[in-house]
Amino acid sequence: MDSDIRGRRARLNEAAPDKKKPPDAARSARSADIALARAPDEEKAKMWAEAEARYAPIVSLLDGSTYGYEAVPYRKDTGTKWPAEAFFAAAEADGALYACDRRFREAAIRGLPSGRGGTKLFLPVPAGIVNEAGIAPGSTLRRIEAAGLRPEHVVLQFSCRSFGEMETLRAAMRHYRLQGFRISLSGIEPERESLRRMTLLRPDYAQLEGGWIASDDGASSPPDERVSAGAALASRAVDESLLGAITALARKEQIVLIVNGISDEAQLAPLVAAGVGYGRGRWIGDARAAPGTIPADVAAQIRQEVSRRYRGAAGTLSDLTLSVETFRSETPVAEIARHFEYQREAHGFIIAEEGRPVGLLMKDKLHQLLSGQFGLPLYWNRPVGKIMDMQPMIADESTPIDQVSQMAMSREPDKLYDAVIVTREGRVAGIASIRALLEWVTHARMADAQWANPLTGLPGNEPIRRELMRRVAEGRPFAVLYADLDHFKWFNDRFGFHRGDDVIRYAGETIASYVREAAPDGSFVGHIGGDDFIVVLTSPDPAALARGLLERFAQGIGAYADPDAGPVVDREGRVVDSDGVCLSLALLACERTEGWTPERLSERAALLKKEAKRQSGHSLAWESV
């Protein structure tokens, strides 16, 4: 084999007899090796001819907008997906890794229109490419610039399935980070070793495989493999908790989380509930030969789910909006710098065309850019459109502040403190700082904590009143469920307040967890005080939900009973026919909201509660109004 390489190297040298050869023999050999690697033979060309680049959309799960595209290898002859790992492994086995990687990059970058510069391109790259003789630093950068893109718009995507690849992967990540690229790590699984690799490598993005997230696929399973509705709800709760933990870990490590494999609409709710920022999969959109838009119905469903999650949240972005000066993208950087000097309180300016935002320039990033060795001569007289952030965070002024805060914290680490552009009907309305957002959220959390019940942690009377007023003002049907413990005074007197507190906590946890499972969309659980609770929710059958809650409560309350407790007595000391603490529910199904107030709802519920308490055991009294 060595003799064959020497022979081919000699033929390459003989092909250019008129060129002056380098004096250093070692340099000459290296040059010949690089030329050989860059001149793929027929077998290498044949392998590349079997693959093409397609684009799978990545969507924001916070507002339904297109965040970027992942370039995916496909077989031309069959039109089937060719997983990037398998594609590069086959290329490496044939000695064609450099050739196939280079041509795939060129095709993927070339196929992304320059008008898509506001979105990101996730480009699969084999970690082993750093060991190839033909690799030349800066070649990818030149192709990106020729396509009208910038390095921050291209994310190089690596895969790491085992610790054996760690050193090679670290070398590849270091090689490309020095050139200004962001790095994504794919193939993350919800298990310890995979998450450990993620935290050790610290990529900018982590792509979590989401095929395990509960969906509606079970409906088509054989009868003996189907699970009950209760088990499905429990599975969803587990998924949400696990997703929330992984999201929190990624946020702590300043890693942007993307979930792959979203194949069903039912997977959307746990993803949004867990605060996952971005997603990709069959339900979002299939890979296409040219970058396409997110289907309108998919974007609408994402916005609807996010709206349900933040429904009732106090405060909108309009409360934090400040006026700001805007500039056109042709404005010289020098002029923007002078305006920052004149307006020392300004931390960012919006770049707009015809009143619509197209970019953002933060003061600290401009100063960082100009302070480099060649910053001033390179950028001082260039248009600001060449250096602005083409992917700023933009939100309508009606967006809840809690939602905006979640969106802001889901961004890349170097954008966490960039201002938010506020719009009104698509046009610039102003700007909101991250400091103002965080201060508002902090004060809101402190206010919520002030009104929270110290025993259960559930919202107290003031949040309950606000929730009822909001539901009435919305004008949509809703249900109010009042819960009260029967014979709790007897239990408290008989066993002491410590065990009484345990029962109160059990009641609050049971009500909150069951409602979260059975009616997760916009439900509210509050603790009025003592042994009284309230639930406000939207459900097609609130009576069935109430009966399910009674069953759930009855299953666990027995753990607090004592066979030697003696007879149960009422407040007057009379013996009653009961086994112990029971749950009474009063349900008001509000079909119309005109004329109702929180006070009137409470009065009506009190009458129903008396009716429920006249029944023995766990009871329900309800009416539709």
Please tell me about this protein's structure.
Helix content is 41%, strand content 18%. The protein has 625 residues and is α/β, with parallel strands linked by helices. Helix 10 packs across helix 11.
Helix content: 40-55%
Summed over residues and divided by their number, the pLDDT gives a mean of 80
Parts with pLDDT < 50 across at least 5 consecutive residues: 1-42, 217-227
Helix-strand category: alpha/beta
- Taking the alpha carbons of the first and last residues, their distance comes to 88 Å
Write a concise keyword list for the protein shown above:
625 residues; eight-stranded mixed barrel; 21 helices
Question: How is this structure best summarized?
Answer:
Helix content is 41%, strand content 18%.
Describe the protein's topology.
Layout: H1 2-14, H2 25-37, H3 42-49, E1 51-60, E2 66-75, H4 84-93, H5 97-110, E3 120-124, H6 139-146, E4 154-159, H7 166-177, E5 182-188, H8 192-201, E6 205-209, H9 229-252, E7 256-260, H10 268-274, E8 278-279, H11 296-309, E9 326-327, H12 333-342, E10 348-353, E11 356-362, H13 363-370, H14 375-379, E12 394-396, H15 401-409, E13 420-424, E14 427-432, H16 434-451, H17 461-474, E15 478-486, H18 488-495, H19 497-518, E16 524-529, E17 532-537, H20 542-557, E18 582-590, H21 598-613, E19 619-624
Parallel strand pairs: 2-3, 3-4, 4-5, 5-6, 6-7, 7-8, 9-10, 12-13, 18-19
Antiparallel strand pairs: 1-2, 1-8, 10-11, 13-14, 15-17, 15-18, 16-17
Helix pairs in contact: 1-2, 3-5, 4-5, 9-10, 10-11, 15-16, 18-19, 19-20
